[in-house]
Amino acid sequence: MNEWAKTLWQYAVLSQIRHHGLSPETSMVTIESPFAEDPVISTYDIQAVISKHAADTALILLPGIQYYTGQLLDIPTITAYARRHGIFIIWDLAHAAGNVPLSLHNWDVDAAAWCTYKYLNGGPGCIGGAFVHSRNSIIAPATTEGESEQVYGNRFSGWWGNDKGTRFQMEPKFRPAKGAAGFQISNPSVLDMTSLCASLELFELAGGMLPLRERSKRLTAFLEKCLSSMSDEAKKLFRTITPPDPEQRGAQLSLLLEDGLLDATMHGLEEHGVIIDERKPNVIRVAPAPLYNNFQDCVSFVEALESALLATQKAK
After folding, report:
1. What is the mean pLDDT of residues 151-167?
2. How far is the C-alpha of 203 from the C-alpha of 67, rounded, in Å?
3. Is the preceding omega at residue 34 within 30 degrees of 0, hence cis?
4. Going by DSSP bridges, is the β-strand pair 88-92/111-114 parallel, antiparallel, or unpaired?
5. pLDDT tens sequence across 17-48
6. Could you give the CA distance from residue 221 to residue 215 in angstroms, rounded to a whole number?
7. How many whole angstroms separate alpha carbon 4 and alpha carbon 65?
8. How would you list the strands of the sheet with 238-240, edge to edge?
9. How is the beta sheet containing 111-114 ordered, strand by strand?
10. Global pTM?
11. What is the rounded CA–CA span in Å between residue 281 and residue 219?
12. Residues sharing a CB contact under 8 Å with residue 52, sequence separation 6 or more, in sequence order
């Protein structure tokens, strides 16, 4: 597990560890940057941790894009490395879905999960999504006497995961649907699906993820350039902790502010009509979305940020 993801995944991971009678101190390994001031983690660092613990690791859980820094991990390379060591790997794609192109089956990913309220614009609390590789969702007929009618991978079985052809027969035997659909527990909200479908239609009209990704790269690069053009007095009050390489990030730039500036800076941005995200104690996250943001938005944000930072510094 990535160190910075602990706050997001720790409840699920810790509950599973304790449910199986194990101790988090001996059953959970976090991957941290070897550099105290740089939270970015290299592919080499991740592979080194995998190699060190491969003999007794059952599962790897990593973010496709790290929520705090905005770093895009090398999903295909890390996945291949984990599979060469015989380790099941799940990717948290909450900040990657709708942000960067994903080819989960071709990358041989075992499984992945994501929300749809961020870049996919489904709205707060909207339905989540999941991917399960076809090799992990095989449904086979029984091969020996006494087995149920089907043999399938262990899972939490829910009525909505039943095969559609037999779902309403209400039989006591669970017959999973093919693919990831067989891992569903309950039916999704119609309102959630409606809002998400409306957003996905816009993605389709825009040509899909490939052209949006190219526009996203240009927008974020322009935002980066605008930040670098700020006055020296303003630039000394923050630094960007997101990788400068466009291939190692999505739309997001994470700005680490000097101590004590966050709250007043956020208030100053709101006074300029700018709403962005904060991660205490000192980080603001800025992500120009290619579906609806433009280059003028980047200029307006940087002007507002410089004004808010300088006003905050002056008031200290």
Report:
1. 87
2. 22
3. no
4. parallel
5. 999 999 999 999 988 887 767 789 999 999 99
6. 10
7. 11
8. 238-240, 253-257, 283-286, 277-279
9. 59-63, 88-92, 111-114, 129-132
10. 0.92
11. 27
12. none
